[in-house]
Amino acid sequence: MSLMASPPARADRQMLRPAGPEAEARAAELRAANINPRTGLATDYLNHFNEAIMLLEMIPDMPECAEDFLTWCPLSYCEHFMASNFKARDLAIEAYEAADTKIRAEFDNLTSTMTSVLTAVGAAMRETHRDKTRAVLAEQATGWVKPLVALAGGIIDGGNKADVETIMGRH
């Protein structure tokens, strides 16, 4: 018995979205839940990273906030919504899973980078207990992660791929 594989999806072709009343109702449902109907992504996930940024920004003036930052745990998109009180969390997960693979891959790459930076900074902060060193780490991490959150927001909002070098150069 032989299995025939499906032809690979073309990366340069947008996924066709159905049109008509059902599609319009679905788009309205997603918009009402603060999920972009074009991308299938919700900005609520960025709150996960904004929380870490807020804690990092406080460390230079209030070194004790480093301990609060060290309790931050990385969560994937789906994990974030499963753990949240977001009223449309199941819809958010469903829309994410149905999102265009190219958009989702670009988004996941950015969020993975943010997670890596925050995780590495957390590890470095655990290695030192000097307030000055932790403050420098916090300031550097904030400078790296904030522009990435902005890029991720652009993807969620359906913008074109941003020029990372330009955005990173401004900060």
Brief rundown of the structure:
This protein has 171 residues and is mainly α. The chain has eight helices and no strands. Helix 2 (46-58) runs antiparallel to helix 7 (131-156) and helix 6 (101-127) packs antiparallel against helix 7 (131-156).
Can you walk through the features of this model?
Residues 1-16 and 161-168 have low confidence and may be disordered. The chain is 63% helix and 0% strand. It is elongated and about 60 Å long. The chain has helices at residues 21-32, 46-58, 65-69, 77-83, 89-98, 101-127, 131-156, 164-170. By secondary structure, it is mainly α.
Strand content: under 5%
Determine the fraction of residues in helical runs and give it as a percent range: 55-70%
Structural class given helices, strands, pairing? mainly alpha
**Averaged pLDDT:** 86
Q: Total number of helical segments?
A: 8
Radius of gyration equals 19 Å
Spans of at least 5 consecutive residues with low confidence: 1-16, 161-168
Which quaternary structure do these chains form? single chain
Distance between the termini: 59 Å
The general outline is elongated
The biggest beta sheet reads: none
* Number of β-strand runs: 0
Secondary structure layout:
Blueprint: H1 21-32, H2 46-58, H3 65-69, H4 77-83, H5 89-98, H6 101-127, H7 131-156, H8 164-170
